[in-house]
Amino acid sequence: LKIKDMNTQITATPKLFIGIDIHKRSWKVHCATDLSSGKTFSMPPDAELLYEYVAKHYTGYEVSTAYEAGCCGYRAHRCFVGYGWRSLVVNPADIFRRGKERHTKTDRIDAQLIARELKDGRLIGICVPDKCREQLRSLFRRRNDLVKDMRQIKSYIKMQLLYYGIRIPQEFDNDHWSHKFRDWLDELDFGYDTGNEVLRSRMRSFRFIDREFREVSTLLRRYTKIHFKKDYMLLRSIPGIGPIVASGILSELGDLRRFGNIKHLAGYVGLAPGIYQSGDTIRHTGVSMRAHRLIRSYFIEASWQAIRTDPVMQCYYRKHHGKNVKSVIVKVARKLLSRTLAVIKTETPYEIGVLE
Fold first, then answer.
1. Do 332 and 316 contact (CB within 8 A), yes or no?
2. Mean pLDDT of the 18-38 span
3. pLDDT digits (tens, 9 = 90+) for 158-184
4. Helix, strand, or coil here: 272?
5. How far apart are CA 42 and CA 54, in angstroms?
6. How far apart are CA 177 and CA 168, in angstroms?
7. How far is the C-alpha of 19 from the C-alpha of 87, rounded, in Å?
8. Global pTM value
9. Could you report the per-residue pLDDT of 3-12, keeping only the tens digit for each?
10. Residue 20 forms beta bridges with which residues?
């Protein structure tokens, strides 16, 4: 019985799965194929070097990569996509860890976990913004940094007055620092030049931050209208959504059309209720802990303004009057979020009583 030679051919494209733990000075990389668990190695933080490695050792493979979102941004992702690879940037909280893996963390283990989850098809990437929206988001976040700096320097100045027993006049004792109040601070005399110089130094810092804050706010409004004018004007038609909130929505949330429904958007922002159920016991845990905390806080602030300017929102708020104020304002914020999604999806400016 003779056995004839048979020509074997590969009918499926071999697949390569690369998990990367990215840091500033080095990358920890784990390469696994559809047939083997692969190996882990360190390399300099350079996408081009990884491309050369793959071209040398895995010619003809279909490549998929994934790494955690973090301080190194999306440059590596854009390089990988440019090479024709499938690339995911994932939320670190979405990487599943078994038993003891939750208590052991090293760069090697992280890279292996990412590769394993990528190979098993359990990873879902975050939405990577284009460069224009990404850099507008940086401007929006710079403004928020200045807000924090402003609060801090004001606190330092008030602390110095309190320490030396100087009372702020009642007409100035509020969050708005008028020019009269600033002049009053400039004229204070602590009796010694050293104390006076401390206050003058802090006032210089205050005035610098104030100028920067106003300049960055103006630039943020200007560039949002330049690059996203249509959606910006749609959002501005909603009572309670001011220019800064509209800029934050467009820069932080991206194109709202990518959200299928209000439940999806509310879950992303963090205005969805948290629920814990065990057997017959169901407990509501308030708003979800997983949230875009910055935008959620902006929507809650905008809700207070909407209550003052929109009769429909006023009625909705009064309908829940007597309940916990924090719970009620979250309900109003979710309703405001629903309006936001509606005007963008329909591309119709908001009119009271129409998009309810």
1. yes
2. 94
3. 999 999 999 999 999 888 899 999 999
4. coil
5. 14
6. 12
7. 10
8. 0.88
9. 455 555 556 7
10. 29, 67
